[in-house]
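Explain this record to help learners:
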Amino acid sequence: MQFLSRWDSQRLSTTIRGIPLVEGVATQDIASQRWSPAHGDLALPALTLDEAAFAANRDLFLKWCANAGVAVAPHAKTPMSPELARSLRAAGAWGTTVANIQQAAVLLASGERRLLLANEIGGLAAGRRLGALLSAYPDVEFHAFADSPAAVTALAEAARIAGRGELSVLVELGAGRAGARDRAAVEATIAAVLAADRLVLGGVATYEGAVATPDIDATLRAISILMERTMETFALVRAAAPQRPLIMSAGGSAYFDIVANALAPVALADGNASVLLRSGALFFADHGIYARAFAEIDRRGGLLVDGLQHSALASFRPALTLWAEVLSRPEDELAIAGFGMRDASFDQGLPVPLRVVRDGVEQQGLAARLTVTRLNDQHAFLSVAPDAALAVGDIIAFGISHPCTCLDRWRIIFGLDADGVVTRALPTQFG
């Protein structure tokens, strides 16, 4: 039997969280088991993906991109699931974004052939590692970032070792994180690319999320300034590479509308350039940081698709659910659930109780009377409203905040159909 991913020599029940205590189950047999986390069929805690919500988010965003005149290379660092990356590309994504050489290796091995490495790689040692990787995939279209002559030198080493005639470099400018800070640094980076063997100017890049602050107005001003700098840098790159097709890349999952509004007209006027977003988390959405970001998008006018306005908050549906069991009711207003910091994101907000199920029956209104107050490694502390009838053994479905730092805690996520039944198991490849 063909088992999941790299654990194919071991029984799933002994290696993967969430798999029930049964004999090893082959990939193609997962759906036939009819497992349901709400009914206690999975070993808890478990993380699930609402397949319909993910597909709806994907289709909405890709349609919005087409209407906005931009493309998207979804950031693979969010799920690190080659299967999900493949499904996004098959639905119309330009390609895939990765954050480092290790992620590039995973996606290349899975068959992806158009990658954007949205980061500097490091020094010459990293250049040699990237070169060795690319030498095994001579057909891949590959773009990487550089914000200094030193970064360019590392990429030139990669191109040399890979034996590539051309390696595309996007000049990164930025604030708050990596990226050239001024025109002199941009010009030095451009000059280094032009002087290097085997490198070509591929465009410009930035990341607007790095300038975000808790002050919404200050954030919008900072992003506006960054977009102006991006357009100025693009003009410098275009002057240095007058004939090449160029990329302008920016756009995470919170401010993609601002990026598109600023950069798409520049690409259109240029006639030989494209805007490439790198949004990844929005395909999963959430009950926290991105729910708040979508509400802000609505305050900026929402999403225009085929001439109709759509609410981002109402349209993007949270697709991830964390399931856990009540382990203890040691005090009247306290419950301990069986998950913790090793299972859930908590950097952008604690999980939110959504549903409580007892013996397969949903307990209406009970989730609203619960609040997660803190997490230990493997325990969640829930404040319970007085007289709320929460019992040991109840199964609670939680919404999460920040998909990126939740998914990376799981080696397997389970796809669910509209009835809450497991359709497949999706391996993640975080290393």
